[in-house]
Design a protein that fits this description.
By secondary structure, the chain is mostly helical. It has helices at about 5-25, 40-65, 70-95, 100-125, 135-150, 165-185; strands at about 30-35, 35-40. A hairpin with a 2-residue loop joins strand 1 and strand 2 (about 35-40). It is a multi-pass membrane protein.
């Protein structure tokens, strides 16, 4: 297994760590950061998520520069992204974050499942793994940024009274819907025999 694929697998391993930090009622208390109280578990979860996001950036860079692009990487890399992003949004709703409405998380999760299903059909029919489009990469970027900022209670922007986390979340939502439609329009031939 090459280094980019190892980084992808490491990102998948980080998912249960991230999940446990937010799901288990740890008695870690809160910390004041730049005048904002943040639960320690959320800070640790944000650090784990940042590490996962960095591995996402690194594995793609290394794979392209060293010509280590593989079908496993094209499949597992976006799958790892979807898994950690869906986990994060569900957990943000679950911990009662007022910044993430359940309907937003539901749309993002439904989009991720639909696109993953489409990719699996294409692989089964054509043997071709569909690489992530630019719109999907933009979606992933804004999802990851919004999750980090929301986990940290918008701490770096609290003094400006600008809900940067929510703004990034809505950009991610729009990009999710757009890129989902784009995937289905570009690959509509998959369903040609159904109509």
């Amino acid at each position: 297994m090459n280094l980019p694929n190892k980084l992808t697998m490491f990102r998948i391993i980080l998912i249960p760590v991230f999940l446990l930090l937010l799901a288990v009622p740890w008695e870690m208390g809160n910390v004041m950061v730049l005048g904002t109280m943040i639960p320690v578990a959320q800070i640790l979860a944000a650090i784990v998520f940042i590490i996962a996001a960095l591995t996402d950036f690194l594995d793609g860079q290394i794979a392209r520069k060293q010509h280590l692009v593989t079908n496993f990487g094209k499949f597992a890399d976006p799958l790892a992204d979807k898994m950690i992003v869906m986990t994060a949004f569900i957990m943000l709703v679950g911990i009662g974050s007022n910044n993430v409405a359940a309907w937003i998380a539901a749309i993002i999760v439904c989009r991720e499942l639909a696109v993953t299903g489409l990719r699996l059909i294409i692989v089964q029919n054509d043997g071709e793994v569909v690489a992530a489009a630019w719109s999907g990469k933009i979606k992933t970027f804004f999802e990851m940024i919004s999750i980090i900022i929301l986990l940290l209670n918008n701490v770096f922007f609290a003094n400006f009274d600008i809900p940067v986390g929510q703004i990034c979340l809505y950009i991610a939502l729009i990009a999710a819907v757009y890129s989902g439609i784009e995937y289905f329009v570009k690959n509509r031939k998959v369903f040609a025999d159904s109509f």
